[in-house]
Amino acid sequence: xxxxxxxxxxxxxxxxxxxxxxxxxxxxxxxxxxxxxxxxxxxxxxxxxxxxxxxxxxxxxxxxxxxxxxxxxxxxxxxxxxxxxxxxxxxxxxxxxxxxxxxxxxxxxxxxxxxxxxxxxxxxxxxxxxxxxxxxxxxxxxxxxxxxxxxxxxxxxxxxxxxxxxxxxxxxxxxxxxxxxxxxxxxxxxxxxxxxxxxxxxxxxxxxxxxxx
Length: 213
Hints:
By secondary structure, this protein is mainly α. It is 76% helix and 0% strand.
């Protein structure tokens, strides 16, 4: 039964993650595919640069929400079909990783998606709200100081397993499980920012307020 719950959690997480709201918003509101614009990414940052604040807000809300929903459904399945406990935590993390994978490689949109920051944030919000608040604070400070969203996202992705480790120690959770899953999610987000890392090292990464050439 444990295996069945994990498989169901992974499947529904991936399918929810595959609903890429950047693509949906750009197609419905502007009859275009955002992946053909700007950086070619389907995330909220490229949406913001291409279509403005309204479209970016809708995209961000949708991508965060699907992470929340994926985790909550997995936790419900584990609690309903099994006795709960550590299995609920495990199911939530399985759904989190699957939702990020769905966002990166969406089955509904030709397996070309975004970089996973927003859906990961939604998953963290549902599974670890205290860790989520800490990471949001770090993200905002980094954005304010650097004006670079990609750098802020990379920093937060790297700190996610660190925050998870200390919170799990405090809360009495399975430290190995939670930290390992957080490390996997953080690594995926950082890997999807590899082009940004090259531009950061070259000093050519886009900053908020910077005029495009």
